[in-house]
Known about the structure:
Elements: H1 2-15, E1 19-23, H2 29-35, E2 44-49, H3 53-60, H4 64-70, H5 75-87, E3 93-99, E4 114-121, E5 124-131, H6 136-155
Parallel strand pairs: 1-2, 1-3
Antiparallel strand pairs: 3-4, 4-5
Helix pairs in contact: 1-6
Amino acid sequence: MQKLVELVALQLTARQWMLATAESCTGGLISAECTDLSGSSAWFDRGFVSYSNEAKAHMLGVSPELIQLNGAVSEPVALAMALGAVYRSKAAAAVAVTGVAGPTGGSPGKPVGSVWIAWCIGGKTSAELKYFDGDRQSIRRQTVEAALQGLLERLSV
């Protein structure tokens, strides 16, 4: 994970960009991985831990109607979280995650391990739905890795 963060840091530093995170199911783990790297203040601006729907609305500007219509674990909400993280920070890049880490909270349409990851890179947004296996800790760790890997891929273009 450290090597992945180092590569993300190189890409952001080369562009003189800052990163913001908007995290629900990971509860700040992406931010923690980023700030574990010495010198991260040169490229990491802030992390939003927006675990509740109210926090998503208040901190990131996600419309409560959007959440009600699609559910918190959805592509539109993940994209809105990523955009909100950029708009409410000094970042040019953001990653957002919202999912069901379990062991409770799953449903037939959104089983445990379902995670939407969204990125906003220089104003362009994208999102992917991932399905992870394992216990709560494993699902959260896999989410962090996928979020950072996706960030690196999008920054490397």
